[in-house]
Amino acid sequence: MYLSFMTFVCPDYDLDKALATAIRYGYEAIEPRAQSDHGHGIEVSTSKKERARIKAQFADTGIKMCCLATSCRYALADERDRQQMIEVTKQHIELAADCGCPALRVFGGPTPEGMDFADAKKHVSESLAAVADFAQDCGVYVCLETHDAYSRGEDAADVISRVDHPNIVINWDMMHCIRQGETMAEAFGHVRNYVKHTHIHDGTWPVDNPGNVTITLMGEGMVPHDEAVRLLASIDYQGALSGEWIACFEPEEILPHDAARLREYLAAANAD
Fold first, then answer.
1. I want to staple 141 with a disulfide (CB 3.0 to 4.6 A). Which of 103, 116, 147, 176 is the partner?
2. Contact 70/35 with Cβ under 8 angstroms?
3. φ and ψ at residue 45, rounded to 5 degrees
4. CA distance 175 to 200
5. What is the CA angle 46-48-50, rounded to 5?
6. Phi, psi dihedral angles at 133 (to 5 degrees)
7. Plot region of 159 (φ>0 → left; ψ -120 to 50 → alpha; else → beta)
8. Which of 71, 74, 103 is nearest to 4 (CA)?
9. Do residues 106 and 129 make contact, with C-beta atoms less than 8 angstroms apart?
10. pTM
11. Pairing relation of β-strands 202-204 and 214-216?
12. Phi, psi of 10 (to 5 degrees)
């Protein structure tokens, strides 16, 4: 396991500054957020020449691009919209591959009004199946996040099992599983065979309103990340623990604090 952060913690930073920030605080990787006009400039519009330069820039600094986070989602009522999203996903898979990035984050999305959840799951699984071979050819894992209607590990794993392809996997955002009533052990039991990327962030929420989340420094919220790290260590998870903090802390506050806490959890897990 190694430490990463998504560029939502520093959306205005150009790639040079983001990489320097990772080095400064001892992070081994960065997760650029595409489709959000962040300062790093890694988008499908980026030229082939610039993609090669970006790949070399990561290699030169020793920092990994562990995952490219996108807004792609597939629980869409209109078939034409789903087909368009499949093409957009392929464009981002190619972008990730050109930049030397092994993974792409996608969403299932909320279930459209009037659509049964079973039908939404079918649309999501079929859309993921439609990009699976292309992703494999590009050497990229497509990671469905436990988010939106798929916040429970059980539902995300159900979709991935339907696709049944080695390059269609899970981005485990454990907070969303916990908010939706799964214990950490229950959520992990569902995702353990599929997890290739994780998102970490601590927070609090009212028991009767789990959607009203206040992000906190790690260890001050309701998410038992120490347990999650131990569970991931039990399967020799080799991916990132990637911090996703959106408009809540300055980089110089959250990055060193959460890194120090995660290293404590990693040391304890390795000692078990």
1. 103
2. yes
3. -80, -10
4. 7
5. 60
6. -65, -35
7. alpha
8. 103
9. no
10. 0.97
11. antiparallel
12. -145, 60
Domains within the chain, CATH numbers bracketed: 2-271 (3.20.20.150)
- pLDDT at residue 139, rounded to an integer: 98
* pLDDT mean values, one per 10 residues, the chain (272 residues): 98 98 98 97 98 98 98 97 98 98 98 97 98 98 98 98 98 97 98 98 94 96 97 98 96 98 96 82
Q: Could you give the dihedral angle defined by the CA atoms of residues 148, 154, 160 and 164, in that order, rounded to the nearest 10 degrees?
A: -170
Residues in the chain: 272
Locus of tokens 């009522």:
77
Residue corresponding to tokens 């959250």: 254
Alpha carbon distance 70, 89 (integer Å): 8
Residues 65/30, Cβ–Cβ less than 8 Å: yes
> How far is the C-alpha of 210 from the C-alpha of 188, rounded, in Å?
20
Q: Look at residue 272 in the predicted model and tell me its pLDDT.
A: 77
